[in-house]
Amino acid sequence: MVFSRCYCYEISVFRRYPVKTLDFEVVGSQYPAPPRDWTIWFTGLSGSGKSTLAQALAGRLQRYGLPHELLDGDVIREGICRGLGFSKADRDENIRRIGCIARLLNRHNVISIVAAISPYQKTRAEVRKIIPKFLEVHVDCPLETLVHRDVKGLYHRALAGQIEHFSGISDPYEAPSHPDVYVNSGKQTAEESLKVIVRKIEELGWLSTPVIEEKVAVAAL
Question: How many CB atoms within 10 Å of residue 114?
Answer without folding.
Answer: 28
